[in-house]
């Protein structure tokens, strides 16, 4: 069933809400990254919070690329007078560059985040093959290495989920998907999450 792409439609919020939420996230991340680029120093570690802003920006751009036919490929360097809609294939390329930047930035970091700084916690896995229900939180926080693994997972998802035709699917670099996957959340013991 084709989506009724009409603003007057009763279900317009199905498209509007995610769009507004993602661009709200991008705007907040861009503001933080722009301030950092202009010399802002954040208490508790500028790079620590730069990683979170980059992560948020990359994830939101990925969602726009995967869900919509067009988007605004904007970041902290965008000139508001030249912003225009671009096709989802350009959004995919732009989002991938941001995901790769997160991976590179967090590769050598050893930051940890409290539950207040990033309200997601990894949980202690149960025995091999067991479910994760009832497992307890590990320190209640998050680390830059988990962000790195999530960004690798996003890289795989973006490449694998972006094709919209058989021809596009045939042209996916599946070796790149595998390379991202091997460094993602399913590698080395998994990373189950409790999204608080």
- What value does the Rg take, in angstroms? 18 Å
Order of helices and strands: HHEEHEEEHHHE
Rounded to the nearest angstrom, the distance between the terminal CA atoms is: 34 Å
Strand ordering within the main sheet = 1-2
Whole-number mean pLDDT: 85
Number of helices: 6
Flag low-confidence runs. Answer: 124-140
In terms of DSSP E residues, the strand content is 5-15%
Description:
It contains six helices and six strands; from the N terminus they run ααββαβββαααβ. About 9% of the residues have low confidence. It is 49% helix and 8% strand.
Give a quick precis of the structure.
The protein is mostly helical.
SSE topology sketch:
Layout: H1 13-37, H2 46-67, E1 70-72, E2 85-87, H3 88-106, E3 112-113, E4 120-122, E5 142-143, H4 144-161, H5 166-170, H6 174-181, E6 193-195
Antiparallel strand pairs: 1-2, 3-5, 4-6
Helix pairs in contact: 1-2, 2-3, 2-4, 3-4, 4-6
Summary keywords:
196 residues; 6 strands; 6 helices; two-stranded antiparallel ribbon; globular; 49% helix; mainly alpha
């Amino acid at each position: 069933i084709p989506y009724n792409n009409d603003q007057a439609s009763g279900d317009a919020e199905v498209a509007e809400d995610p769009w507004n939420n993602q661009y709200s996230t991008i705007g907040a991340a861009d503001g933080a990254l722009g301030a950092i680029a202009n010399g802002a120093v954040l208490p508790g570690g500028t790079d620590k919070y730069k990683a979170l802003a980059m992560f948020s920006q990359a994830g939101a751009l990925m969602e726009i690329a995967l869900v919509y036919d067009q988007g605004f490929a904007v970041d902290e360097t965008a000139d508001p007078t030249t912003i225009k809609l671009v096709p989802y294939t350009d959004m995919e390329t732009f989002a991938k560059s941001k995901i790769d930047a997160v991976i590179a930035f967090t590769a050598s970091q050893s930051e940890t985040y409290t539950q207040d700084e990033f309200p997601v916690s990894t949980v202690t896995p149960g025995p091999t093959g067991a479910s994760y229900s009832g497992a307890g939180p590990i320190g209640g926080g998050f680390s830059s290495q988990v962000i790195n693994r999530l960004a690798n997972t996003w890289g795989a998802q973006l490449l694998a989920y972006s094709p919209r035709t058989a021809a596009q699917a045939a042209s996916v670099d599946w070796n790149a998907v595998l390379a991202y996957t091997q460094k993602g959340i399913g590698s080395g013991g998994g990373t189950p999450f409790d999204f608080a």
